[in-house]
């Protein structure tokens, strides 16, 4: 693994840690700033809103800035947002700080994915991108539990300080290891926006929002499902979430090679298997061992989707892939919000704690349908190339990357 990929993985690790640690520290944060726990939950929404807004806006603003310099600027904003979160004296200031901390999230992943794809041979581009995403999945296993434990023992502010330190380490690693990658003469906000107008980019983002929404419909209510239906104690749920992270790591590891070999079939298979796993969870949730195995598999299939969607968007955006790659993470945050809303809706309707699994399966199948529509449009226009080699992510002029 090039050292630059490791540096990008550290960035992803910091992002994953700051995004999910807040959820584990809501009671401590609520006490610290004098609000109720449900009110403190709005901090999670503030971060997500920052991601949705920041991904297209910051990549648009930085459309002519060389990728390495842009990565460093975005990392600096990440450090500022988390330091401000640690120093916030009241809820209003903390809300604003979490919004700022979320702004560089999607842009860092988008620019990082483009940079990662150019660090290796074209036929290994998806593997490089998946290695960057490993930082996010490892954060769920190590970073989030460690940040939560740190915040519980030393105060919630210490968790944000720790994330800011991770950001400093990532900034130094990026500065030392990422090579200069100048933008092409045709780069700019107009080119990025024109690429975003491609119907295949729109369908790719819609696939992410709908299909991955099925994953979040269950993930958002996993803890109450396991305590109410499986009979696990509250103290056991941390281990279960770690198992979820293990599954996501395994899915990310296999996503890269599979996507390099066959992009669209990997996406189809991931969505179909995710839907099947969610239906299976409806029946296994009442037994401890089958439930834990199914949870791990759901995590793997959710992660398996991420890399092919990212590579598809970068391919269809052609010579201006950065905004499309960044907007993918806005799409995932919309999936988070939409999946959680639908899961809560079916529970509130009285369909039971297991009902989000079936709602999530419907979303995953709907995402599969959108992916199939996109493929049919490709074949209809005779525009689908034959392999992932020769991608414009490497030259800026060759034919768009493709799926076998």
Automatic annotation (TrEMBL):
InterPro entries noted in UniProt: MFS, MFS_dom, MFS_Efflux_Transporters, MFS_trans_sf
Chain segments carrying region Disordered: 379-404
Topological type in the membrane: Multi-pass membrane protein
Residues annotated as transmembrane: 42-63, 70-89, 95-121, 133-154, 160-180, 201-223, 235-255, 267-285, 291-313, 334-353, 359-377
Localisation: Cell membrane
Domain of life: Bacteria
Compositional bias segments (type: Polar residues): 383-398
Signal peptide interval: none
Keywords per UniProt: Cell membrane, Membrane, Transmembrane, Transmembrane helix
Residues of the Major facilitator superfamily (MFS) profile domain: 2-379
Protein's name according to its UniProt entry: MFS transporter
Organism: Streptomyces argenteolus
